[in-house]
Amino acid sequence: MPSVYIKTYGCQMNERDSEAVAAQLVAKGYSLAPNEHAADVVLLNTCSVRDNAEQKAINKMENLVGKLRKSRPSVVLGFMGCMAQSRGKQLIDQLPDVDLVLGTQKFHRAADYVNELLAGTRRKIVDTEEETGSEATIKEHLLLGTAKEKQVTAFVSIMQGCNQYCTFCIVPYTRGEERSRTIADIVDECRSLVERGVREVTLLGQIVTSYGKRDIKLKDGKSAFVQLLDAVHEIDGLERIRFTSPHPKGYGDDLVEAYARLPKLCESAHIPLQSGSDRLLKIMHRGYTTERFLTIVEKLRKARPNIGITTDIIVGFPGETEEDFEQTLSLGRQVRFDNSYIFKYSPRKDTPAAAMPDQTPQVILEERNQRLLTLINEIAAEKYNQLVGQTVQILVEGPSRKNEARYMGRTRCNRIVLFDGGERHRGHLMDVKITRTGSFTLYGDPAILNLD
Q1: Which residue among 326, 337, 433, 434 has its CA within the 20 to 30 Å range from the CA of 157?
Q2: With 90 as the cut, is the pLDDT of residue 25 above it?
């Protein structure tokens, strides 16, 4: 049977979509190739959040065309995901050797389309149309017979799309409007994963805290998202629950209270800030102020004193002044994030920010990015060093990606811990003593491991 290789760019949503497409193809009899050179089908699952991500995918496809078409002219090459949705047929016009362009609401069609292309019944396929009900189609996981190793954690997509329309963001145009699955459907998927060995699930949505807003009414003062957390929490055998990516507006008192009430909900919160300037937050169409953001952080730390808080920050948004940027630095010092994903502003097609005056010069953008990165790293290093000598609980996921001689797990606060272990530890909750730190990595003492 043919083999397939999928390369993923971008966020966890893309990782989840790639996994589902791979699982569909495996169910149809395909094997998973170790690399593009051994594959009969090569698919690039693309990201459009920044121009750099799009250029990487295009450059990669150009290299594939140059290397593979000459030696293996029958190989099927395709784009999936956000850039495919945004550019559509333009990608085939630019790269005529591409066979498939598959939009964000069409992942469940991938296996059928690949079959048609390999069989020669169709020469080129571009499908970026909206499809009702597509939010409930991505359920496949690479587990048991289709996965090489036991899967301990899993992503579960609970919704598609975004209604926020931040002025810098292309996602609402590539993912469409918000569409949520039912609570029962999501719980069934999570329960099935647990029955197959998964111990931790991460609930995914473009703005995950907007789940079910239009379809599910408040119940006992709880939003639809908190109702979902309650339902997933009841699954026997599930040890941990995480979610990403939320919006500060979604952190109502019911969600804050859930952190204190639900022991399976990990004390880890990723809350995108984007800027520490109220002036820029308004122009970005974010819908909150820095005061509101700080209040959320204060409430969460009161509910779970050891909670790990991470964020996203954009530097160089159009019109950002030195004062605006200093306000971001100041808020970073005040909150003391455990980590921050810093993004240099990148104009995206058809977004309001792309047409704004006073685009930040590249030299200033680079300089501010480095200053903020230095601050975030200094604070994170201090926090990590404070953990040396402490005992933490980890869920062991498997061998380290960089060094298979070590095993890795995550704390409830989502910090990576490496230790000298073996396959017998996979899937176990363990206490380890932290002996030293690396760059956003902790090292645990194997002497206290007592699993047989």
Answers
A1: 337
A2: yes
